[in-house]
């Protein structure tokens, strides 16, 4: 089975409703899983990571691009990050036994469809590039939306690989390609001076004679009043994370500043983190085969979200803040949806499938995938609260307080989403009870009980965060009525 990762970047990092609409467009496609949604307000950019098989993944990404085209207007867009399109860049990454050639074909097929159906010019880049200079994304995006808009019709060098020689009036142009796994890695400096960040970026990036397989830019992050060196590590085997960090730190110290902290944007291979651990812990003869979680995965591969059930419950049992009750509630929802699917699989007559039952089976299948995403989203949202609370304590002020309120609201929204989904699926499954096989009655009862547990647990998490929201003096009028509506009656 050929599986691929796709990491489309969208020129919207501030409007949460728009970002959710784009991500939801992919969640509706069977065989595709959204693994991560990362947004940055200063960059005004979101990076969404999803995996799936070729045709399903292509369809999901096209739907996301169509949604972004309908909701993002580049003529009104401002942000630190360079951009050429509402959907700015779409890379396909081969996983497992999939090949780069297959990823290139996906890029080409998507590019042709985007140009034909949406009227957006497409540039093929990286391994899919048809011109040598277009292997470099920075070269493709040179001039950004405005520069490409003004030159595409007259400069032969700007001619797209697919589509018209004119940008879409609001969605611009898109770079679509194929590449190996990339790590997006940012280092925050102990200065707001963006000039120093840009100087360091020039020194460490490959194009400036620095580290191989490293692209880097310097940005001002106004929200934090800090300068940032933003890097793409295009081959972490050649230049690992720790080497990039140490290079930035050396250059920073040459300029009288230092690296305060760093962050990874999107997904990262575990081996890249183990590389850094071995370097800093000086583990010169470390065998990664002794890592506990790898041993567990080797003997038990049944898992919420790909993780073994043993590993997930061990994480729940650990003396750590996350995962907690919200994640457990979402996991219960996934179990409930899976049981409901099984009941319907045996109850639907394959010769004369009832449309209502088939629709319900599809909804349960999509719900199961969404619950698994919510397991990790809940954990991440609470980690965001802890980070914001710490920042508020260390640097009190309006900005820190506003960031804390945003984090609390997000921590309430995630379990509320879990409860909504469980309530909807529970009602629909209960209404189908009379049309299911009697022999599966115990399975149906278990599924409905798990849905009730999901609702109870999720809403308890909403209530806790609601109290924190009120204590922070933030409005919560839109949450309270829904909390009352969703709470199951005794």
User: Would you tell me the overall average pLDDT?
Assistant: 89
| Helical content (DSSP H or I, runs of 4+) | 40-55%
Secondary structure tally: strands: 11
* Secondary-structure-derived class: alpha+beta
What is the N-to-C succession of helices and strands? EEHEEHEHEHHEEHEEHEHHHHHHHH
Number of helices: 15
Q: What global shape is seen?
A: globular
CATH topology of the largest domain: Formiminotransferase-cyclodeaminase, Chain B, domain 1
Spans of at least 5 consecutive residues with low confidence? 300-304
User: Over the alpha carbons, how many angstroms does the gyration radius reach?
Assistant: 24 Å
Number of domains: 3
Oligomer: single chain
Which range does the strand content fall in?
5-15%
The CATH homologous superfamily name of the largest domain equals Formiminotransferase, N-terminal subdomain
Report the span from N to C terminus.
Answer: 47 Å
């Amino acid at each position: 089975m050929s599986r691929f990762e796709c990491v489309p970047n969208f020129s919207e990092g501030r409007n949460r409703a728009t970002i959710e609409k784009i991500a939801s467009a992919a969640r509706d496609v069977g065989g595709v899983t959204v693994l991560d949604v990362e947004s940055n307000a200063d960059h005004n950019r979101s990076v969404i990571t999803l995996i799936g098989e070729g045709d399903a993944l292509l369809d999901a990404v096209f739907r996301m691009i169509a949604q972004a085209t309908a909701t993002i207007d580049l003529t009104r867009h401002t942000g630190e990050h360079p951009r050429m399109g509402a959907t700015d860049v779409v890379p396909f990454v081969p996983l497992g036994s999939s090949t780069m050639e297959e990823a290139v074909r996906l890029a080409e097929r998507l590019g042709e469809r985007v140009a034909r159906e949406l009227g957006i010019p497409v540039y093929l880049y990286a391994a899919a590039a048809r011109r040598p200079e277009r292997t470099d994304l920075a070269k493709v995006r040179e001039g950004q939306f405005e520069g490409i808009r003004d030159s595409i019709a007259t400069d032969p060098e700007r001619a797209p690989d697919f589509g018209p020689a004119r940008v879409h009036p609001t969605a611009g142009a898109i770079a679509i390609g194929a590449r190996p796994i990339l790590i997006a890695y940012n280092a925050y400096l102990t200065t707001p001076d963006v000039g120093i960040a840009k100087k360091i970026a020039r020194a460490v990036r490959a194009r400036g004679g620095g580290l191989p397989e490293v692209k880097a830019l310097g940005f001002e992050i106004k929200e934090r009043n800090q300068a940032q060196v933003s890097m793409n590590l295009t081959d972490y085997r050649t230049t690992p994370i720790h080497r990039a960090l140490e290079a930035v730190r050396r250059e920073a110290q040459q300029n009288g500043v230092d690296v305060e902290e760093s962050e990874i944007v999107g997904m990262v291979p575990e081996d890249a983190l183990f590389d850094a651990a071995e370097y800093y812990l000086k583990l010169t003869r470390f065998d990664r085969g002794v890592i506990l979680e790898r041993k567990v995965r080797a003997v038990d591969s049944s898992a919420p979200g790909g993780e073994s059930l043993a590993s997930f419950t061990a994480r729940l049992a650990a003396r750590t803040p996350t995962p907690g009750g919200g994640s457990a509630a979402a996991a219960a929802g996934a179990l409930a949806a899976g049981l409901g699917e099984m009941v319907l699989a045996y109850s639907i007559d394959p010769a004369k499938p009832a449309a209502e039952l088939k629709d319900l089976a599809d909804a349960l299948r999509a719900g199961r995938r969404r619950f698994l995403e919510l397991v990790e989203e809940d954990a991440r949202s609470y980690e965001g609260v802890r980070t914001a609370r710490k920042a508020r304590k260390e640097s009190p002020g309006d900005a820190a307080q506003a960031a804390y309120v945003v984090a609390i609201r997000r921590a309430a929204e995630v379990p509320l989403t879990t409860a909504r989904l469980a309530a909807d699926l529970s009602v629909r499954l209960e209404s189908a009870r009379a049309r299911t096989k009697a022999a599966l009655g115990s399975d149906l009862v278990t599924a409905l009980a798990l849905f009730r547990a999901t609702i109870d647990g999720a809403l308890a998490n909403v209530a806790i965060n609601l109290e924190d929201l009120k204590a922070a003096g933030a409005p919560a009028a839109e949450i309270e009525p829904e909390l009352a509506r969703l709470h199951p009656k005794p």
